[in-house]
């Protein structure tokens, strides 16, 4: 019989061990500080992409212009690379983490250190939990909750600013200007309530495991005071406008579906106020409003915040509402 080669046997066993650790997608799961980060396949996938580049961490802390008396909120702290930098700088850090494994790792990293009393960990989903008090938010947020997180922030209690790591395209949408290809409902709604600045681009290689796309850091500074409008009605208007943003406003607001909605809302508001319903057809009222506002040829993709505010005010003055 042939002689067994010990080196070959060890190589085969190593290949088998490597194969057994690979997930359903054929890629070995990433490990960071003893935590296996799984993407795809079976089991719970929290979508973590942990920031491993210390230069980016330092830059985020610097861009937040933190004070020693600040309370900082961090959503998705992971294993705590950014958290530790924040704890060294501010009075207190409130870390909101959904993954129980990360909660344990974060506790371990500060346990027995002078930083431990300054850290409060909330185990839960930031979107579903009551928003804690904080002065500033600094976070590498889970990308799948970017939009709901931003609007929860802007509709909640006041804070000074938020410095957030987000997907690059999401950042470009937040910062887009009228006429840009990525100018959208998200842009307008966010800019109504806050000033947004793009701070820096971050390579996907700065994360473990690396995401499929590059990221960006943005600074969001809420407007004080908030604009005095019905945000639900505002969003109803903007939703219609950006459903077909390159069409003219008459083409958007004179479709049968939209006219029916406006007519029903007009009747409801008139009934609530005890006033008669106007004899003029709703389509004529719409065109009268657009013409008087000088927007009969305008397209949503080219309008800025003051234009949308003026449009909403003109519709409301004519008795037309979007809620």
Task: Please write out the topology.
Elements: H1 6-20, E1 30-32, E2 35-37, E3 50-51, H2 54-63, E4 71-75, H3 81-87, E5 92-97, H4 100-110, E6 119-123, E7 136-140, H5 146-155, E8 161-167, H6 168-175, H7 185-193, E9 194-202, E10 207-208, E11 215-222, H8 231-243, H9 249-253, H10 256-273, H11 282-292, H12 305-317
Parallel strand pairs: 4-5, 4-7, 5-6, 7-8
Antiparallel strand pairs: 1-2, 3-10, 8-11, 9-11
Commentary on this structure:
This protein is of the alpha/beta class and 323 residues long. Helices cover 40% and strands 17% of the residues. It contains twelve helices and eleven strands. The chain has helices spanning 6-20, 54-63, 81-87, 100-110, 146-155, 168-175, 185-193, 231-243, 249-253, 256-273, 282-292, 305-317; strands at residues 30-32, 35-37, 50-51, 71-75, 92-97, 119-123, 136-140, 161-167, 194-202, 207-208, 215-222. Strands 6-5-4-7-8-11-9 form a seven-stranded mixed beta sheet. A two-stranded antiparallel sheet has the order 1-2. Strand 4, helix 3 and strand 5 form a beta-alpha-beta unit. The protein is elongated. The relative contact order is 0.09.
Descriptors:
323 residues; 12 helices; 11 strands
What's a quick, concise take on this entry?
The protein has 323 residues and is α/β, with parallel strands linked by helices.
Gyration radius, in Å: 26 Å
Query: Structural class of the secondary elements?
Result: alpha/beta
Please report which band the strand proportion falls in: under 5%, 5-15%, 15-25%, 25-35%, 35-45% or over 45%.
15-25%
What share of the residues lie within helices? 40-55%
> Unreliable stretches, pLDDT < 50, 5 or more residues?
11-32, 37-43
Quaternary assembly: single chain
Number of strands: 11
Roughly how many Å apart are the termini?
85 Å
Largest sheet: 7 strands, mixed
Question: What overall geometry do the principal axes of the alpha carbons give?
Answer: elongated
Element order: H for helix, E for strand: HEEEHEHEHEEHEHHEEEHHHHH
**How many helices?**
12
The strands making up the biggest β-sheet line up spatially as 6-5-4-7-8-11-9
Quote the average pLDDT: 88
């Amino acid at each position: 019989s042939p002689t067994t080669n010990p080196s070959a046997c060890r190589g085969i066993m190593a290949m088998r061990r490597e194969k057994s650790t690979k997930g359903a997608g054929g890629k070995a799961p990433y490990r960071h500080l003893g935590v296996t980060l799984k993407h795809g396949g079976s089991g719970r996938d929290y979508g973590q992409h942990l920031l491993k580049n210390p230069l980016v961490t330092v830059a985020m802390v610097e861009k937040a212009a933190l004070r020693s008396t600040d309370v900082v909120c961090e959503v998705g702290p992971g294993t705590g690379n950014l958290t530790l930098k924040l704890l060294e700088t501010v009075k207190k850090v409130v870390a909101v983490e959904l993954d129980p494994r990360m909660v344990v790792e974060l506790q371990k990293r500060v346990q027995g250190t002078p930083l431990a009393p300054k850290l409060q960990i909330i185990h839960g989903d930031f979107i579903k939990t009551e928003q804690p008090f904080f002065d500033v938010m600094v976070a590498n947020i889970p990308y799948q909750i970017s939009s709901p997180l931003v609007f929860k922030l802007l509709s909640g209690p006041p804070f000074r600013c938020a410095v957030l790591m987000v997907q690059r395209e999401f950042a470009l949408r937040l910062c887009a200007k009228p006429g840009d290809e990525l100018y959208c409902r998200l842009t307008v709604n966010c800019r109504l309530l806050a000033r947004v600045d793009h701070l820096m681009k971050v390579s996907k290689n700065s994360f473990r495991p690396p995401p499929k796309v590059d990221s960006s850091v943005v600074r969001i500074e809420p407007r004080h005071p908030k604009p005095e409008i019905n945000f639900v009605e505002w969003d109803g208007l903007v939703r219609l406008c950006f459903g077909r943003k390159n069409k003219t406003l008459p083409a958007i607001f004179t479709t049968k579906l939209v006219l029916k909605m406006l007519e029903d809302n007009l009747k409801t508001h008139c009934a609530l106020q005890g006033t008669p319903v106007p004899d003029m057809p709703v389509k004529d009222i719409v065109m009268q409003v657009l013409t008087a506002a000088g927007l009969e040829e305008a397209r949503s993709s080219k309008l800025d915040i003051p234009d949308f505010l003026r449009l909403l005010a003109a519709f409301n003055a004519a008795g037309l509402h979007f809620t």
